[in-house]
Amino acid sequence: MSLLTVERLEARHGLLQAVRGVDLALGAGETLALVGANGAGKTTLLRAIAGAHRASAGRIRFDGADITALPAHRRLKRGIALVPEGRRLFTGMTVEENLLVAAGRGRAGRWTLATVLEAFPQLRPKLKARAGDLSGGQQQATAIARALMSNPRLLLLDEVSLGLSPAAVEQLYLSLRALPATETAIVLVEQDLGRALAAANRVVCLLEGRITYEGAAAETTRERVMAAYFGMAGGR
Ligand code: ATP
After folding, report:
1. Which residue, by CA, sits nearest to atom 30 of ligand 1?
2. I need a labelling partner for 15 at 20 to 30 A (CA). Which of 74, 98, 117, 153 fits?
3. Quick one: pLDDT at residue 94?
4. φ/ψ of residue 49, rounded to 5
């Protein structure tokens, strides 16, 4: 059975329909890359799954239950954590405080301060530093580590490599690679197509709120995705 099922989901910003009839299914431990041009609806779809944006139609099921009407904090309790674009850390608080704040908001599980520091060792010497004083890569690591502290079964990552140095991106993806072994499912919005294909089992391309391509990452070529990206290929 799928961990996450999205059925004919629609989401709007006022009159603008940003997500149009999206169907998705994701199993435990799977990594799905969500790609598409600016404005394709990726962020809105992630936020709708997390409960940060209300769906205007359709259903979201998680672990067998219909969660469409649940607010974000109740979805977090069930194991859906979002790392939003722009990180949204408490910049005046230390890294440790940022991590500990999240601990009580989700579920109990294997992720504790000790285990997230094993996954993100670059944060260990920064625990007492103000989050606002960290480099972009360290802030992004803190944001992902904070989400892990809620022991998610589904981690939604919105453009985590945006604005980071190549070395920082490399280090982040190295840490992310270990997560599927913990059965955590991941939906990854990533502009770098090569990286998205390398990190994911499955790829979905959105264009103007609709899925224009879906396939196994191993069978997906850059050309095929780029065609779907710009609407040059037929449907799924
Ligand atoms: P990006 O890569 O630029 O973040 P995206 O694929 O994540 O793009 P969304 O941010 O979900 O796309 O935007 C989908 C559509 O909804 C776009 O047309 C965008 O302009 C519009 N939109 C997004 N946020 C808002 C908002 N707060 N108010 C009005 N329209 C919005």
Report:
1. 13
2. 74
3. 95
4. -65, -35
